[in-house]
Amino acid sequence: MRLYLSSYRIGDRAGTLLAMLGDGKRAAIIENALDNVSATARDLYRTDVYDPAAELASLGISAELLDLRHYFGRAAALRTHLSQFDLVWVTGGNAFVLRRAMQLSGFDDIIVDLLDADAIVYGGFSAGAVVAAPSLEGIHLIDDPAELPSGYSGEVVWDGLGLIDHAIVPHYRSPHPETHAAERAARHLSARGLRYRALRDGEVIVWTEERQLTPETQRRIA
């Protein structure tokens, strides 16, 4: 299992990401954490402020958008499509919106299978990083769990993907609009005795782990 979890954008370990990918240069960008933002606003931001595809291209990685909304209730199709990529890069936004999209599309189960088989690298920043944790506890002090884009179910998903064994608090003590909320989230987790790591912008968690494939997982990825 190969994880690259950043507080903000690529962060300061781009060389490590490239080493993790080896010869793999195909990435799927998932921006569903921004589904509560209008398509027009997203396009303007991508043009004028930050384009994740351009950032990946600067590293020699070819990337395309993958909208999980197109796969709600179509997990088998998503599994086939994801198998074409070496990296999934999950951007920031609202972590609760993102987590709903992952559940509704079946991405949450699929990515675990692909990571167990070491068939893909999971990378992401901000919301894309925090959902790797066991739970989104504390993140409600940064993102609104009640945000509900069109086409989404109303149930809040509090479970994370469980890829790592602690919470991540991004934008901690950083020049970012959410830094004060991040401080509150860190205090909340600390007061409850929950394991977490607070990341300043630029910092990255690189997590590699060998995981034993179960027969059921082997069957699903075959």
Topology:
Elements: E1 2-6, H1 14-21, E2 26-30, H2 39-48, H3 52-57, E3 62-65, H4 75-82, E4 87-90, H5 95-105, H6 107-116, E5 121-125, H7 127-130, E6 167-169, H8 179-191, E7 196-198, E8 204-208, H9 215-221
Parallel strand pairs: 1-5, 2-3, 2-4, 4-5, 6-7
Antiparallel strand pairs: 1-8
Number of domains: 1
Number of helices: 9
Low-confidence stretches: none
User: Spatial order of the strands in the main sheet?
Assistant: 3-2-4-5-1-8
Fraction of residues in H or I helices: 25-40%
Features of this protein?
222 residues, alpha/beta, Rossmann fold, 6-stranded mixed β-sheet, two-stranded parallel ribbon, 9 helices, 35% helix
Question: How would you describe what is shown here?
Answer:
- With 222 residues, the chain is α/β, with parallel strands linked by helices.
- The protein has a single domain, classed as 3-Layer(aba) Sandwich (Rossmann fold), CATH 3.40.50.880.
- It has 9 helices and 8 strands.
- It has helices spanning 14-21, 39-48, 52-57, 75-82, 95-105, 107-116, 127-130, 179-191, 215-221, and strands at 2-6, 26-30, 62-65, 87-90, 121-125, 167-169, 196-198, 204-208.
- It has a 6-stranded mixed sheet with strand order 3-2-4-5-1-8. Strands 6-7 form a two-stranded parallel ribbon.
- α8 links the parallel β6 (167-169) and β7 (196-198).
- The radius of gyration is 16 Å and the shape is globular.
